[in-house]
Design a protein that fits this description.
With 181 residues, the protein is of the alpha+beta class. It has a domain at 46-113. The protein is built from 8 helices and 4 strands, in the order ααβααβααβααβ. It starts with 7 loop residues before the first helix and ends with a strand. Belongs to the PIGL family.
Amino acid sequence: SGNYYNQGETRKKELEQSCGVLGIPAADVTVIDHRDLPDSPTVEWDTQLLATLVLKHIEAKNINLVVTFDAGGVSGHPNHIALYTAVRYSVLPGGVTGQWGACVWCCVLVLQSVSLLRKYLSFLDLPLSCLLPRDVLFILTEEETQQAKRAMWCHRSQLLWFRHLYVLFSRYMVVNSLSLL
Protein backbone atom coordinates (compact mmCIF):
# COMPACT_ATOMS: atom_id res chain seq x y z
CA SER A 1 0.00 0.00 0.00
CA GLY A 2 2.97 2.29 0.68
CA ASN A 3 0.70 4.42 2.84
CA TYR A 4 1.78 7.62 1.07
CA TYR A 5 0.01 10.56 2.75
CA ASN A 6 -1.61 7.97 5.06
CA GLN A 7 -3.74 6.71 2.17
CA GLY A 8 -2.67 3.05 2.33
CA GLU A 9 -6.10 1.60 3.07
CA THR A 10 -7.75 3.85 0.49
CA ARG A 11 -5.23 2.79 -2.14
CA LYS A 12 -5.78 -0.89 -1.36
CA LYS A 13 -9.53 -0.49 -1.92
CA GLU A 14 -8.92 1.49 -5.11
CA LEU A 15 -6.61 -1.24 -6.40
CA GLU A 16 -9.24 -3.91 -5.76
CA GLN A 17 -11.86 -1.79 -7.55
CA SER A 18 -9.52 -1.21 -10.47
CA CYS A 19 -8.71 -4.91 -10.74
CA GLY A 20 -12.45 -5.68 -10.61
CA VAL A 21 -12.97 -3.44 -13.65
CA LEU A 22 -10.23 -5.44 -15.41
CA GLY A 23 -11.87 -8.75 -14.47
CA ILE A 24 -9.33 -9.69 -11.81
CA PRO A 25 -11.02 -11.10 -8.69
CA ALA A 26 -10.09 -9.55 -5.34
CA ALA A 27 -8.87 -12.98 -4.21
CA ASP A 28 -6.14 -12.76 -6.88
CA VAL A 29 -4.92 -9.33 -5.72
CA THR A 30 -1.99 -9.33 -3.32
CA VAL A 31 -0.70 -6.16 -1.69
CA ILE A 32 2.79 -6.53 -0.29
CA ASP A 33 2.63 -4.18 2.66
CA HIS A 34 6.11 -3.91 4.14
CA ARG A 35 7.23 -1.11 6.45
CA ASP A 36 10.61 -0.89 4.69
CA LEU A 37 8.93 -0.25 1.31
CA PRO A 38 7.01 2.99 1.78
CA ASP A 39 5.42 4.65 -1.23
CA SER A 40 7.72 7.63 -1.26
CA PRO A 41 9.91 9.17 -3.93
CA THR A 42 12.42 10.09 -1.21
CA VAL A 43 13.02 6.59 0.21
CA GLU A 44 15.36 4.19 -1.59
CA TRP A 45 14.01 0.65 -1.46
CA ASP A 46 16.33 -2.22 -0.58
CA THR A 47 16.85 -4.25 -3.78
CA GLN A 48 17.49 -7.58 -2.08
CA LEU A 49 14.44 -7.25 0.22
CA LEU A 50 12.15 -6.34 -2.67
CA ALA A 51 13.60 -9.07 -4.89
CA THR A 52 13.05 -11.66 -2.17
CA LEU A 53 9.43 -10.59 -1.63
CA VAL A 54 8.66 -10.58 -5.36
CA LEU A 55 10.32 -13.97 -5.89
CA LYS A 56 8.41 -15.52 -2.97
CA HIS A 57 5.14 -14.23 -4.42
CA ILE A 58 5.97 -15.57 -7.88
CA GLU A 59 6.85 -18.99 -6.50
CA ALA A 60 3.82 -19.12 -4.15
CA LYS A 61 1.38 -18.23 -6.95
CA ASN A 62 3.21 -20.26 -9.63
CA ILE A 63 3.39 -17.18 -11.87
CA ASN A 64 4.89 -17.74 -15.31
CA LEU A 65 4.86 -14.18 -16.70
CA VAL A 66 5.89 -10.92 -15.04
CA VAL A 67 5.43 -7.52 -16.63
CA THR A 68 7.36 -4.73 -14.94
CA PHE A 69 8.83 -1.30 -15.57
CA ASP A 70 12.15 -0.77 -17.31
CA ALA A 71 15.15 1.08 -15.88
CA GLY A 72 13.40 4.42 -16.56
CA GLY A 73 10.34 3.42 -14.56
CA VAL A 74 8.10 4.89 -17.35
CA SER A 75 7.60 8.04 -15.27
CA GLY A 76 10.98 8.16 -13.54
CA HIS A 77 9.38 7.29 -10.18
CA PRO A 78 12.09 5.84 -7.89
CA ASN A 79 9.75 3.09 -6.62
CA HIS A 80 9.03 1.96 -10.20
CA ILE A 81 12.75 1.89 -10.95
CA ALA A 82 13.42 -0.03 -7.73
CA LEU A 83 10.91 -2.69 -8.77
CA TYR A 84 12.67 -3.11 -12.12
CA THR A 85 16.04 -3.31 -10.36
CA ALA A 86 14.73 -5.95 -7.94
CA VAL A 87 13.23 -8.07 -10.70
CA ARG A 88 16.44 -7.79 -12.72
CA TYR A 89 18.46 -8.70 -9.63
CA SER A 90 16.27 -11.78 -9.18
CA VAL A 91 16.91 -13.12 -12.65
CA LEU A 92 20.65 -12.51 -12.83
CA PRO A 93 23.15 -15.16 -11.67
CA GLY A 94 24.22 -14.55 -8.09
CA GLY A 95 21.02 -12.73 -7.18
CA VAL A 96 18.18 -14.07 -5.07
CA THR A 97 18.10 -17.85 -5.26
CA GLY A 98 15.16 -19.54 -6.92
CA GLN A 99 14.21 -21.29 -10.13
CA TRP A 100 13.41 -18.01 -11.85
CA GLY A 101 14.95 -16.61 -14.98
CA ALA A 102 15.77 -17.03 -18.65
CA CYS A 103 12.12 -17.87 -19.39
CA VAL A 104 12.61 -21.33 -17.84
CA TRP A 105 9.30 -21.07 -16.04
CA CYS A 106 8.84 -17.34 -15.60
CA CYS A 107 9.27 -14.89 -18.45
CA VAL A 108 9.86 -11.25 -17.63
CA LEU A 109 8.73 -8.46 -19.93
CA VAL A 110 9.71 -4.86 -19.26
CA LEU A 111 7.57 -1.95 -20.37
CA GLN A 112 9.68 0.42 -22.42
CA SER A 113 9.86 4.02 -21.26
CA VAL A 114 9.44 6.61 -24.01
CA SER A 115 10.14 10.33 -24.27
CA LEU A 116 7.66 12.79 -22.81
CA LEU A 117 6.53 13.77 -26.30
CA ARG A 118 5.82 10.18 -27.33
CA LYS A 119 4.22 9.45 -23.98
CA TYR A 120 1.39 11.88 -24.68
CA LEU A 121 0.79 11.16 -28.37
CA SER A 122 -1.88 8.56 -27.57
CA PHE A 123 -2.72 6.42 -30.61
CA LEU A 124 -0.61 8.69 -32.85
CA ASP A 125 2.46 6.92 -31.45
CA LEU A 126 1.36 3.63 -33.01
CA PRO A 127 3.23 3.97 -36.35
CA LEU A 128 6.50 4.80 -34.59
CA SER A 129 5.97 1.98 -32.08
CA CYS A 130 5.54 -0.44 -34.97
CA LEU A 131 8.85 0.62 -36.52
CA LEU A 132 11.05 0.65 -33.40
CA PRO A 133 12.66 -2.49 -31.95
CA ARG A 134 10.72 -4.39 -29.29
CA ASP A 135 9.91 -8.00 -28.46
CA VAL A 136 6.20 -7.49 -27.89
CA LEU A 137 3.86 -4.76 -29.08
CA PHE A 138 0.57 -4.71 -27.22
CA ILE A 139 -2.16 -2.67 -28.88
CA LEU A 140 -5.47 -2.19 -27.11
CA THR A 141 -8.77 -2.14 -28.95
CA GLU A 142 -11.11 0.81 -28.36
CA GLU A 143 -13.11 -1.32 -25.92
CA GLU A 144 -9.95 -2.35 -24.03
CA THR A 145 -8.77 1.27 -23.92
CA GLN A 146 -12.08 2.35 -22.39
CA GLN A 147 -11.83 -0.49 -19.86
CA ALA A 148 -8.28 0.57 -18.96
CA LYS A 149 -9.44 4.15 -18.49
CA ARG A 150 -12.30 3.02 -16.21
CA ALA A 151 -9.76 1.04 -14.20
CA MET A 152 -7.48 4.08 -13.90
CA TRP A 153 -10.37 6.29 -12.73
CA CYS A 154 -10.78 3.93 -9.74
CA HIS A 155 -7.53 5.32 -8.31
CA ARG A 156 -9.21 8.57 -7.20
CA SER A 157 -6.73 9.33 -4.41
CA GLN A 158 -3.93 9.48 -6.99
CA LEU A 159 -5.71 11.38 -9.75
CA LEU A 160 -3.89 14.68 -9.61
CA TRP A 161 -4.23 17.05 -12.58
CA PHE A 162 -1.34 15.53 -14.53
CA ARG A 163 -2.73 12.01 -14.13
CA HIS A 164 -5.97 13.15 -15.76
CA LEU A 165 -3.83 14.14 -18.75
CA TYR A 166 -2.13 10.74 -18.58
CA VAL A 167 -5.44 8.84 -18.70
CA LEU A 168 -6.72 10.99 -21.56
CA PHE A 169 -3.61 11.25 -23.75
CA SER A 170 -1.00 8.66 -22.77
CA ARG A 171 0.10 6.21 -25.43
CA TYR A 172 0.32 3.63 -22.61
CA MET A 173 -3.48 3.59 -22.55
CA VAL A 174 -3.41 2.44 -26.20
CA VAL A 175 -0.04 0.94 -27.12
CA ASN A 176 2.75 -0.64 -25.06
CA SER A 177 6.17 -1.76 -26.26
CA LEU A 178 7.82 -4.45 -24.17
CA SER A 179 11.18 -6.22 -24.19
CA LEU A 180 12.26 -9.55 -22.72
CA LEU A 181 14.52 -9.19 -19.71
